[in-house]
Amino acid sequence: MSGWAAKTEKVGQLDCRVIEYRDQAKIAVILCHGYGAPGEDLVSLAEVFIDYLGDSAADFRFIFPAAPLQPPEIAVYGGRAWWEINMAALLAASQASAFSQLHDKSPPGIETATEMLVSTISQSLDDLGGSGRYVLGGFSQGAMLTMHTSLLSDVPPPELLVQFSGTLVCQSTWQTQLGAGRLRQTDVVQSHGRQDPILPFSSAQTLFGLIENACKSAKFLPFNGPHTIPMEALSEVAVRLKAIAS
Description:
Elements: E1 4-11, E2 14-21, E3 27-32, H1 45-53, E4 60-65, H2 72-75, H3 87-95, H4 110-127, E5 134-139, H5 141-152, E6 160-164, H6 171-179, E7 187-193, H7 201-211, E8 217-223, H8 231-245
């Protein structure tokens, strides 16, 4: 990655890992990690995208925010959280096929996390000259956060919204915003494992059912596997990034 620089800096209210090529970027790509992961968990994805994009990669600034919370049960191994989760209760609901009961719940702390992420988005856009062009996405809890932010914040929605192994929460609120056309100019890529033991595949299908006709385009990438990000999904996002840069 000759010519590329990686640095850690505060962007808005969040500490971020930022990767860019000689200050040439025009478009921000902001990706949020999942619950229990360290702040740099998704940073390696930048290299995947840079390798695929070739010369077009210089158009992008890759920004990886670290979640602000470090609950004791996950902090011991460097884990962070956007909001606290009772994992025992979540897994019990998943195993009992009762996860749908959580679809309309608003997780305590999601609004605070949204405000912090909005500050990062706003600062990122200002740093790029106020172009307003950005891609937003995340994995697991980070996917939920970025969906919520895209639907309910004061910043414009992203050109591309990426949902790696996310799920449906805040259903009534999200459905209202989708119905109002909040994502009508946004492309959405969603992936989810059929054997996901944490966030059920059926809930991902329910989420896609809400968004597929409420955005510019929507693509759902199911895969045989657990709670992870498959190469197929990364390839699809890379293709979309190349189209945005062209």
